[in-house]
């Protein structure tokens, strides 16, 4: 029998970037907020002596325990989905701060094109160009979202230089860009020679000491190369546990409950009354009543919780109707590995978002009239730091083990580099999420089922942009480059990117979207669903900057709703 607790103004489910921003913004305005985090509490003290690649980089200390909760996967609806038994393609964070603790820090703004992608594409190229794609506009424009991008960049202390293809900015980045290195300079010089417009990657690794609007003080980056999959013991990487959560607690209106796994949104069909959760240490069940419920968990968890709670209209891939689980998207990742026989580079040094980028082939920044895909991707060189266990680039004809592999690994450890692309992912009718009918988690809840495979759009984008990355690498002077494997079927095991999106998408119309542009559910006015689950497609960048902007937009909407009620328009 679940114990019912005293009612609160707002309950937040998941305390990463989105959850911490909601807690801070509502708490400072006097609303009482309870934050439920299924993992443990943590902060700077927990990152001391964290430079252990085996523990954190290989054995995933900061990630979700798949023996308790995972998801099932299949490429198409004719296959039987099977549980993901090991972390591979994407890394699901767990614990206070979520994936905002172990991220690299790339912090781009989605392009103006992204928010109006359907209307802009059809206007320029005609309906035929989007045939087979389940595209829709987001119900908000870049200009409307720009002030919220600005707020997030100030909270996270983003350093960078202006993107020549980006939307207009109301303010410059709050920090200067990170260091120029021989690698970033060589990439920029090569790109310029090829007629492109490179710029330094926007970074949440502090280029200098910084204090944000919440009074959080962050130190300058040490370029130690332990960002992705690690917490930063210097407090030099923007992280919710450093940048936002202390302020939320200091408002006196935010109560954090760690080890609290939410299993249900309780509702009467039109409004939520609270949530049910399990204390994962004692196994006790609790009901937390609330005036407003805010889901700020990861993409998969937001979608799964709504589906298992029977809140919203489940997506049906046969008819294309329904909205919860719709438009799951990932990313397409063409790139080039180059080898340099006569030069060495300090690639073992770096920071998560130390790099340079070109956007000449992102969004609609180039003419798509004669290509068989839409959108594109950001092309970057990222000097994040090559660590000894995971970094073993070798020429493609090298054996995968043995004497020759060791010899080539040692030789090319400092004589190789990679140019990568974050390619946009467009939604199709058959890429979606629902509940698995057979498998359950440790608490008896159905697992989320992911049905996903690459489309012709994805393969054509991959082939086109891969040739561009080859050109840049050759211009950089590589002795030779590895061939790229063709893009065939998506595989959930090898690591690719943790940039999953969709499932609770936003839009201007109830029939085709789950939430409005304040991320308020059409089907339950006191439920807000915040995160990359709201993306109607995935763009050519990391999603975090856009998630942060949407979180500030949602916080404003929640405050309005708390005063006036009703649907926000």
Automatic annotation (TrEMBL):
Residues covered by the Glucose-methanol-choline oxidoreductase C-terminal domain: 427-551
Limits of the Glucose-methanol-choline oxidoreductase N-terminal domain: 142-328
SUPFAM superfamilies documented for this protein: FAD-linked reductases, C-terminal domain (SSF54373), FAD/NAD(P)-binding domain (SSF51905)
Pfam families with a match to the protein in the record: GMC_oxred_C (PF05199), GMC_oxred_N (PF00732)
Region (Disordered): 160-182
Keywords: FAD, Flavoprotein, Oxidoreductase
Oxidoreductase is among the record's keywords: yes
InterPro entries assigned: FAD/NAD-bd_sf, GMC_OxRdtase_N, GMC_OxRtase_C
Any one GO molecular-function label of the UniProt entry: oxidoreductase activity, acting on CH-OH group of donors
Protein family: Belongs to the GMC oxidoreductase family.
Protein known as: Gluconate 2-dehydrogenase alpha chain
Organism whose genome encodes this protein: Mesobacillus foraminis
């Amino acid at each position: 029998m679940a114990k019912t607790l005293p009612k609160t103004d707002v309950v937040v489910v998941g305390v990463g970037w989105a959850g911490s921003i909601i807690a801070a913004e509502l708490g400072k305005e006097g609303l009482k907020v309870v934050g439920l985090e299924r993992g443990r509490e943590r902060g700077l003290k927990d990152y001391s002596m964290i430079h252990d690649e085996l523990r954190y980089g290989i054995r995933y200390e900061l990630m979700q325990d798949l023996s308790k909760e995972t998801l099932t996967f299949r490429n198409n609806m004719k296959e039987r989905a099977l549980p993901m038994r090991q972390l591979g393609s994407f890394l699901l964070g767990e614990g206070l701060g979520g994936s905002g603790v172990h991220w690299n820090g790339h912090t781009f703004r989605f392009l103006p094109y992204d928010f109006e992608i359907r209307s802009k594409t059809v206007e320029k190229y005609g309906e035929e160009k989007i045939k087979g794609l389940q595209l829709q506009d987001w119900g908000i424009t870049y200009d409307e979202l720009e002030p919220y991008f600005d707020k997030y960049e100030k909270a996270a202390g983003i350093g960078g230089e202006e993107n020549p293809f980006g939307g207009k900015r109301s303010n410059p980045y709050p920090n200067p860009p990170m260091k120029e290195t021989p690698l970033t300079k060589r990439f920029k010089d090569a790109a310029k020679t090829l007629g492109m417009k490179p710029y330094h990657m926007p970074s949440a690794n502090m280029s200098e000491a910084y204090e944000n609007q919440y009074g959080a003080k962050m130190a300058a980056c040490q370029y130690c190369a332990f960002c992705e999959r690690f917490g930063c013991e210097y407090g030099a990487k923007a992280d919710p546990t450093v940048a936002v959560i202390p302020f939320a607690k200091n408002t006196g209106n935010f109560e954090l409950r760690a080890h609290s796994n939410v299993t249900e949104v309780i509702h009467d069909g039109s409004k939520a009354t609270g949530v049910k959760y399990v204390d994962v240490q004692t196994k006790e069940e609790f009901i937390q009543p609330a005036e407003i419920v805010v889901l700020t968990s990861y993409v998969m968890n937001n979608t799964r919780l709504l589906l298992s709670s029977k809140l919203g209209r489940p997506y049906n891939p046969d008819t294309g109707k329904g909205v919860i689980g719709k438009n799951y998207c990932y990313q397409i990742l063409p790139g080039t590995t180059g080898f340099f026989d006569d030069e060495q580079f300090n690639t073992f040094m770096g920071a998560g978002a130390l790099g340079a980028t070109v956007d000449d082939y992102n969004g609609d920044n180039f003419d798509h009239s004669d290509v068989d895909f839409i959108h594109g991707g950001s092309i970057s060189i990222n000097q994040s730091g090559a660590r000894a266990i995971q970094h073993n680039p070798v020429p493609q004809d090298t054996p995968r083990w043995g004497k020759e592999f060791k010899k080539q690994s040692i030789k090319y450890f400092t004589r190789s580099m990679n140019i990568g692309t974050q390619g946009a992912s467009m939604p199709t009718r058959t890429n979606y999420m629902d509940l698995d009918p057979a498998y359950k988690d440790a608490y008896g809840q159905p697992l989320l089922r992911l049905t996903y495979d690459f489309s012709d759009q994805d393969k054509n984008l991959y082939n086109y942009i891969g040739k561009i990355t080859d050109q840049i690498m050759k211009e950089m002077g590589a002795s030779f480059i590895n061939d790229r494997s063709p893009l065939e079927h998506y595989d959930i095991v090898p690591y690719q990117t943790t940039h999953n999106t969709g499932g609770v998408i936003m839009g201007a119309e109830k029939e085709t979207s789950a939430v409005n542009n304040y991320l308020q559910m059409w089907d339950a006015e006191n439920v807000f669903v915040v995160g990359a689950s709201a993306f109607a497609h995935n763009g050519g960048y990391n999603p975090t900057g856009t998630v942060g902007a949407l979180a500030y937009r949602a916080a404003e909407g929640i405050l309005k709703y708390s005063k006036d009620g009703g649907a926000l328009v």
